[in-house]
């Protein structure tokens, strides 16, 4: 059978992801895998209608579609996302209808589940028959057990097509009919004092988003800077070239305005608001390009100790995957998420009140430098990066390694010698039955809170 492989790597054939595809092709020579380099050729796909239509024809005549991509900042690359936008913009969804499909995603497992959720939902929106997904670590092809499972994944896909198996949808269609928001705001204006506030948006064409941004700005005495990504000179998305790995120097460097804006304006802000329109389960391709290009900082947080807010036009409550991506982005950066405001409210006054509340909370929490404890979303991601940079990825990510050493990111548990000695002694004692009984029956619960009780009872602790 003929399978079209839609390659989401900007590096084209020289990508880790494609090595998994080549391995499948080698082992299943009876099937033809036609690889189309989507992300690498996105500009041609955008500008050359005939080329785009040839891709659609190849998909139309195929037996199945395999979406194969590396992970780029929580989902797929901006170039791949642009291709997805073009499918909807050019009314080509019928080409994908009822095609059997699977996903192959390579990464180091940093939020690979959000990338898979995003692509799975897109496949459901395209009314495809979603069979399965396979998300190995980028170097898992070196392991025999993973290779065996990869072949089983491929066989399952081929068998599903041949036998026309029934597949289940995981994501319901997204529906959004917002009010036409016009602000009725009458609250007292807030004093931002010496706080630098910046709003970054991808477009002001959406009237609701434009009006929400305007109402938010009117909450303050001071003038609030708005940066439209459409006006910012960004030559292209992240190429995955890893030139930044040595010293955070991007291959684009002085070729556009991105680095200057990020380093001189965004980093200097105390309060950052990202504003955009939800479309096809994410923000726009322009927003994705902006976030992807932030990878010139590689795996080192670069927007720490900010207060973040999101103003979004669209059905965020129906796209929890996007909410988790944005929450995780802020937490991993080492900043504090104050909240989201969307145009999902029933009345203008409700939306007014929530925009004002967001503005008020951003100022209040920035003044006292409040930051709630980081959850799994931020902690797990940072620990994963810590282990990868310490090990396999120390080269080429030399800049990360230097930063991690400087900021004590390498906080491996084996360095905690006091706890190691205590654990060794207690484990040894527990080999004696009557001591083990005493510890587990009478000592563990009081012991767990002993150090905390000292702090609670110490009047000198501030």
Structure explained in plain terms:
It comes from Vallitalea pronyensis. This is NAD(P)H-dependent oxidoreductase. Keywords: Flavoprotein, FMN. Residues 1-99 form the Flavodoxin-like fold domain. The protein has 462 residues and is of the alpha/beta class. The protein has three domains: 2-163, 3-Layer(aba) Sandwich (Rossmann fold), CATH 3.40.50.360; 197-376, Rossmann fold; 416-457, no CATH class. The chain has helices spanning 16-27, 42-47, 49-60, 78-89, 93-96, 112-125, 144-163, 207-217, 244-247, 258-266, 285-293, 320-333, 348-367, 376-390, 398-406, 417-429, 433-457, and strands at 2-7, 32-37, 64-70, 100-106, 129-134, 197-201, 225-228, 271-277, 307-313, 336-342. The strands form two sheets. The protein has a five-stranded parallel β-sheet with strand order 2-1-3-4-5, with helices on both faces. Helix 4 packs antiparallel against helix 11 and helix 12 (320-333) crosses helix 14. The chain is globular, with a radius of gyration of 25 Å.
